[in-house]
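Sanity check. The docking grid for zinc ion depends on where the pocket ends up, so I'm generating a full predicted complex first rather than guessing from homology. Inputs follow.
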Amino acid sequence: EAFDQQMSALTRAYLDWHLANGVSDGRGFFSQYRDTCGTVDVNAGSIAIKVVDVFYAERLPLSILSTDSFIASALVRQGVVPCSPISPSTGVTMQALNLYHIARQRNPHFSIQAYVKTLCDLQGVQFHPYLSRQFSIALDVYLQILSNVESLVHEAIGRSNSNWRLMHACPACTYTLKDEDPLQFKLLYTMDGNDSLKRVLKKVTRDDSESAELPSTQSVGGDRYLTRDYVNNFAGDSSVDMLSVDDKDNPCAGRWNNMKDEKTRRMWGVFDESGIFMAVCRHGFSLVIADMVQSGEQSKYPLAVVSKLLDVFGKDLGGGYDIGCRFKTTLSRSVLGQSARELNHTSLVGAFHGHAHKRLCQLDHLTTYVKGLGLEDLEGCERTFSKSNALASSVRYSSIFHRRQAIANYFQHADDFEVYANLSTFLYNNYKQALGIL
Ligand SMILES: [Zn+2]
Ligand SMILES: [Zn+2]
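Predicted complex below; grid placement will be based on this.
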């Protein structure tokens, strides 16, 4: 997109706007605009553009200074994100974009169309589908700017390591105090796949097997997402099939017929991404996410997740997984087997799923019987998914990029505003519960 070439100028313009706007006392775009109207430089050019805010829209001349690199960056500097990169006729205010951006995280059902219709109703304008399209373009630009600003900030404060977020994902798990006693498990996480966040494959004709989606240069920032390529590095390992029945050491072998790929293969034809596979720490912070692509829960997804976690966290990890006993065998036979043993990785089974395992297996893997687990049930994924499932309706027919954007933004917001905010209460309640038991 033409926006890509302008992005660094747009990011600088956003920073200028944000700096100037810090003292605006919460006034909206239009009242500010009228205040500064008289002070426009006589040498400045101007462009007339329809500015859309939440309660009001008007066609206004906005100034273009000689210091502005692009028309778009001139608009962004004044708090308006244009809906087209070269000669925009319409723009949306930062406030209107930010309102939707945040509202969507709190209510993932809230679609762009619903928001644009809300604005139309408020302003007494008839809704047209092209308005949604325009808003969606401006929103993408806005989110891209925000993510660029975030990486600039991280760079400025020395957090440019690409694993920085993951290394500090959870204050309780990853922040070690001086002289702190080491625990049996340095970090307990739980991972699972979830098929709610499917996305329908777009095809040109009914018999076409290729996706009709246009290739896009847009990509989602942040390190939460494992790329498809990273995951596929572990695809060769699928020879160690997680669900093969011939394992003598495993008392639960042959129990997981419901997870066999053939049973659900027909479904994969319809969907491109068939869900997500993710790991969360025991406090509920999201660690990594991978897309499951045209398949069920194959072994490459947990292997990719474990590989990333071993790389970043190193020794003494404990991981809960609903078929943890089976995955232990898979892991030790895979390319990761050596380092998993050296780094003392433990595969466990969550308390709820444990009931489907045989008694002998439970004694080895079930959280109830393993020393060092305490009250932890390693079922955090189910709690996380029960909330994130609300995203399903908005990602099913979106593009690859927009689906990832929605998922990544959702988990970032949930970590910052939900999980982090509830962390103290969570720890306090667990502590009280533990005291009660002791
Ligand atoms: Zn944690
Ligand atoms: Zn088992």
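Relevant for the grid: Residues 400-437 form the longest helix (38 residues).
Also worth noting: The chain has a mean pLDDT of 84.
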